[in-house]
Amino acid sequence: MSSTLAAAATAAIPSIPRDDDGPVFRAPWEAHAFAMVLTLHDRGVFTWPEWASALADEIKRAQAAGDPDTGETYYLHWLATLEKLVASKGVASTETLNRYRDAWDHAADRTPHGKPIELTPEDFG
């Protein structure tokens, strides 16, 4: 992940959890979701104001549904926003996103703890 892109994102989206060195993540998947957003922004799929507005809407929706807003769910909102924008921009359909999510769940269930998760054709079955 480019430090220039990460710096631009943290400047444009003040809610990103960070410390003095930049964004902080509680789990590897959060860093991956962050990197996917940086990449899609860099490729022109959406602007930072568009992303920030969509993320704010997702967080408000979650809070209205009872999310306690402790910061622990921030990247869940980030991921939900990413999925919605990717679908609305036509990058991938909701069906494709759901298919891959289900495949990853299947792959994670069959993968021993501590081993890398790898998708196989059987995970899509």
TrEMBL record:
Q: Which domain of life is it from?
A: Bacteria
Domain Nitrile hydratase beta subunit-like N-terminal: residue ranges? 17-103
Protein name (Swiss-Prot/TrEMBL): Nitrile hydratase
- Provide the leader sequence positions: none
User: Could you tell me which species this protein originates from?
Assistant: Bradyrhizobium neotropicale
Tell me which InterPro entries the record gives. CN_hydtase_beta-like_N, CN_hydtase_beta_C, Elect_transpt_acc-like_dom_sf, Nitrile_Hydratase_acc_put
Classification via NCBIfam families? nitrile_acc
